[in-house]
Write a structure and sequence with these properties.
By secondary structure, this protein is mainly α. The protein has 23 helices and no strands. The N terminus and C terminus are likely disordered. It is a multi-pass membrane protein.
Length: 513
């Protein structure tokens, strides 16, 4: 695929001037970063209190992702639990069987197969529209700003949560009505759109040297959010049931919306702070809605992502995107985690909650302590860190799939403490391959790929789990380990070919390298 695009006539005219365009775009990117809110021009002041204040001023979009992840973590496992109850009653099992499903293997197998199928359809309905949404939105956000794309996913998730709330209130309603929650999420882009806008925004306001660390702290929403959400979910469910869980989840999405409106200042578009300093990158106002539907946005996205770059830059970008998609594919196993522990160990929701909290706690240690120390302080090569994290991730999945007892499953959580390195570093490496003016387009292309992956992974993991549930239910985790081995091969190639790209080698005054 890469060799064919190297000779694409559409891209031929861009090849001749790629070095000059890289220099000019990098200079524009530096100019933008210097005027963006919370840009990293200034150094940390002396004194503990002054440093704390300085760090707090640097916080921009991190809480948006955190509140969003907490909102979904509060309801994620409890939604599966509600589906188990609904489907069990729909299958006409008596209430005693439904209350002790773990003790009735035949009934549990029947119910779990249907629940996993509903979850699969929920993923498909949510992600199919998001593929097209992401393709248009990346180029649009480069022109009109990141803030509106950042607002859409929490709004859609808030509406989806109200759908779940309705299903809980009218508990006798058919379980298939759960699928209605996919509509608002699909029409607002979901998590993929939020990540696209957040990582593009972060690239706008950070410099090369600190970008991996800043993306790590942004990504901490995925490590801090789930423990908070799961713990809150357990307390709320025991006291207020499903209605309390979904009510609080809706509050977190509303807080994410409110914070974005009040705190986040756009870096691009006619209302950005930068455009008050200079008109160099200002775009004509135009019709924002009309521009969103402009097919040229999609063409521009593909043209930018596929254009030739020095030092195998295009090959690196495409390989990194494929690697990240491989990691996203593994997320398909998350839909069967609760079902797996319930089947193999007879766990109830509270047991699964304790395991999840332990796993997330060690993830926080890896992301917030180990990664910043090795990446920012010790300046260890990003690719090396990703490879080390991959080894631990593969080991974790193998242990999880073979776990004969619960304590061995907990051991897999300890081993996976640095497993989050891979995705953080891959996103950072992608952002370092292109100037800021192209971040939205490249991340848009990546987001569209990411949206496609659940369409494949969810059915694959559902089929594997339903097929192997009676013989070897841990087969899904060996599939995950095999996928991560492919990612490790990509990291080895990147390490061997780690010449800097045009962005990192271009001399830009006052920029970090």
């Amino acid at each position: 695929m890469i060799s064919v695009s190297d000779t694409d006539p559409l891209l031929h005219n861009e090849t001749e001037n790629v070095h000059n365009s890289g220099i000019s775009e990098a200079n524009e990117s530096t100019s933008l970063a210097s005027h963006s809110p919370n840009s990293e021009e200034d150094e940390a002041p002396e004194g503990r209190c002054a440093r704390v204040g300085w760090v707090l001023r640097k916080v921009t979009i991190e809480p948006v992702l955190l509140f969003y992840i907490i909102g979904w973590s509060v309801q994620a496992a409890i939604t599966t639990n509600m589906l188990l109850e609904k489907v069990c009653h729909e299958q006409n099992f008596n209430p005693e069987v439904c209350a002790n499903l773990s003790s009735h293997s035949d009934a549990q197998s029947t119910v779990q197969e249907e629940v996993s199928t509903i979850n699969m359809y929920l993923e498909l309905l949510t992600n199919i529209p998001a593929v097209f949404f992401a393709l248009f939105l990346g180029s649009w956000s480069d022109k009109h700003g990141r803030k509106i794309p950042m607002l859409l996913p929490p709004c859609g998730s808030l509406i989806a949560t109200l759908v779940y709330l309705g299903n809980a209130y009218w508990f006798e309603s058919p379980s298939i009505y759960i699928l209605l929650a996919a509509i608002p999420r699909a029409l607002t882009g979901g998590l993929i759109t939020l990540l696209l806008s957040c990582f593009s925004y972060m690239a706008d306001i950070t410099k090369m040297r600190s970008r991996t660390m800043r993306i790590a702290f942004l990504d901490m929403g995925f490590t801090i959010g789930p423990p908070i959400g799961l713990l809150s979910s357990d307390i709320l469910f025991s006291k207020f049931g499903y209605l309390g869980v979904y009510g609080v989840s809706a509050v977190f999405f509303f807080i994410a919306i409110l914070y974005t409106v009040v705190r986040v200042e756009d870096t691009r578009g006619r209302y950005s702070k930068y455009n008050r300093h200079s008109t160099e990158l200002a775009q004509p106002p135009g019709n924002m809605c009309k521009d969103l539907c402009d097919v040229n946005n999609v063409k521009d996205t593909f043209r930018t992502a596929m254009k030739p770059r020095p030092h195998k830059g295009r090959t690196k970008i495409l390989l990194l995107m494929v690697t990240l998609c491989t990691m996203i594919f593994i997320f398909g196993a998350m839909n069967i985690d609760y079902l797996y522990t319930k089947w193999k160990f007879g766990w109830e929701y509270s047991d699964y909650l304790h395991y999840s909290l332990t796993q997330q706690l060690f993830g926080i240690i890896g992301t917030s302590i180990i990664l910043p120390v090795f990446s920012f302080r010790l300046q260890v090569d990003d690719t090396v860190l990703a490879m080390v994290g991959g080894v631990f991730t593969i080991s974790s999945y193998i242990i999880k799939g073979l776990a004969p007892t619960p304590w061995v499953l907990y051991l897999s959580a300890v081993v996976s403490c640095v497993g989050g390195f891979g995705m953080i570093i891959v996103r950072s490496l992608i952002s370092k391959q292109v100037p800021d003016e192209e971040q939205g387009k490249v991340f848009s292309m990546l987001a569209s790929w990411e949206s496609l992956i659940p369409l494949i992974s969810s059915p694959v993991y559902t089929i594997v789990y339903n097929t192997s549930i009676s013989t070897f239910p841990g087969a899904c985790y060996f599939l995950s380990a095999g996928c991560y081995i492919l990612a490790e091969c990509a990291f080895i190639w990147l390490l061997v070919n780690r010449k800097p790209s045009s962005v990192t080698t271009t001399h830009v005054p006052n920029s970090e390298t």
